[in-house]
Amino acid sequence: MKKLTLLLPALATVFAQDAASLLREASVRAAIEFAAQNEDKVIAEQIEICEVPAPPFHEKQRGELYKRKFEELGLRNVRIDAEGNVIGGRPGRNARPNLVFSAHLDTVFPPGTNVKVTRDGSWLKGPGIGDDCRGLAVVLGVIRAMNAAKVETPGTITFVGTVGEEGLGDLRGVKHLFGSSLKGQIDKFISLDGIGFGVANVGVGSFRYKVTFKGPGGHSYGAFGMANPIHALGRAIEKISDFQVPSMPKTTFNVGRIGGGTSVNSIAFEAWMEVDMRSADPASLREVDEKFKAAVQQALDEENARWNQNGRIAVQIETVGVRPAGKTSEDSAIVRTAVAVSSALGLQVTLREGSTDSNVGMNLGVPSITMNSGGAGRGAHSLGEMFDTTDSYKGTQRALLAAIALAR
Fold first, then answer.
1. 276: domain range?
2. Could you tell me the pLDDT band of residue 145, with boundaries at 50, 70 and 90?
3. Which of 217, 206, 357 is nearest to 279 (CA)?
4. pTM higher than 0.85, yes or no?
5. What is the pLDDT of residues 39-52, one digit of tens each?
6. Pairing outcome for strands 123-125 and 118-120
7. Spatial distance between the Cα atoms of 234 and 223, rounded to a whole number of angstroms
């Protein structure tokens, strides 16, 4: 996530009285106190969840564990939908509004990664320990605190563990929620993701492609003079690397992976790359996307012309991910409430932009934000990812108060 706006005291003031009045309710106050006292349980579940692997497109084992947790906590109609999302409801006095309160099950780490979590004092170390094992554990902590204090909400809260948030998962889990399993039933959406106390109200959109150049291939000496897919790939990457893009709105491009060829003495029959382009501004994203497609075509034409169409090559551009851009206004009730809840607990908050599950709701016009889950850490998306549990209960308390405040 990228920092977008600093502390907004004016917004906090608007809703501070509402948050403060909630804290005067006996059941809410008891839930907040329980959250602090129960943080050791949240940490234990954070570790337990993280030690169950959840590689991209292979979240089933962790999802089944999460489903059992939902059932043990007494959620209603607990199920795993067709995409793999874990869903359970906590009914309010009324069916609506329905707040969806979620965290994502998947990690960026491939099958076979050692997911054992180690502890050194207040520090936990393990792949995904902050992103998003922390969010998953805090969701459970919120449910447990509400149950312990017998908190009743005017509206319903639907708790979810989503699949496909990371990488080429393409937000497939949350897209399925909005488009199928909870279609027409989501009034507000919160995703818990990452550490600290930021709130993402701007969704950075992205286009992701796999580009494959293909040709007949041949012997590097005997067939010399033939168009080469790897050379065409190089031409394309060179052109992409020279793109000029705006810094405001921030617009980016990246060739993230490349591959191809069979041996050092062969003209490749295939070469490929994966490309990512991002912006929170749809027009800027479309502009860099058009540049990208033109660059690929130019690289193809130039490589074929260089060798007089000998061993002519072709190119395939495959869309592997589309994350919709969107924004939830700083003046919206959901953002103001998130800021006010933070203020009521003595926490400063920043508004940010990011690329998360809440992108989908933002794009559809459903009030949606992503909230960090408290604590501190470093090394996200690395094997050495770490989470500092010092005062991490404050993140659980904030998530809890936000859930109660928005389920109305």
1. 205-323
2. very high
3. 206
4. yes
5. 999 999 999 999 99
6. antiparallel
7. 20
